[in-house]
């Protein structure tokens, strides 16, 4: 970091310190996977169900077409969330893995504190935190996923995709991740779709309403005993009702066929 950047960052820290939200210097670098504290362990071990059955969303998840949803998400309507089942402000809760080792629902009560404390944070997933169906990406292989107007993405096919993004305070843990395509994670070439669509919408809303909270739920949609979800349904409800949305995020990639039971894929 050059002198000018350091001076700018120091001023930002001083400003945040006055708000009681000072950022530690470690947040500007990649962080290690966090350990669960005692209260988080209690939540981790306490199974809870979602108000919606994931299987109810399968017809919509399987109806994806690139010409209809090139940004890999569709808006389903109002969130229909019940704030009573959410953790206290600034906390996350992750349900245990199911009997197949698959990630289940994750919930968070997102605050401005979560946002500020996670600026420039990118946590590492430990090797033992890979989600179900994860086969990794071959080294030095770049996959091309065609998008709109002749644009395309080139890079890894699979991502460890957060249910609750690290930018919103989510942890780099298996209970908070699924095996997701790059396009499921960020959408097309402009990176404004997929999970990023709703993640950025929530972040920007909180930045404009710093005293409010957003109840945030992410629910993977699996078909039968498959290890990779067909989609993730994300619901967000602000404490004042100004943000109230349920989004289907499709876990697929234009031009490819995915074996959701194993994570294998091939170009069409």
Automatic annotation (TrEMBL):
Q: Does the keyword Hydrolase apply?
A: yes
| GO molecular function per UniProt | endonuclease activity; hydrolase activity; metal ion binding; nucleic acid binding
Q: Give start and end of each DNA/RNA non-specific endonuclease/pyrophosphatase/phosphodiesterase domain.
A: 86-267
InterPro entries the UniProt entry points to: DNA/RNA_non-sp_Endonuclease_sf (IPR044929), Endo_G_ENPP1-like_dom (IPR001604)
Tagged with keyword Nuclease = yes
* Keywords annotated in UniProt: Endonuclease, Hydrolase, Nuclease, Signal
For this UniProt entry, which residues form the secretion signal? 1-31
Q: What is this protein's name?
A: DNA/RNA non-specific endonuclease
Ranked from the top, the taxonomy reads: Bacteria, Bacillati, Bacillota, Bacilli, Lactobacillales
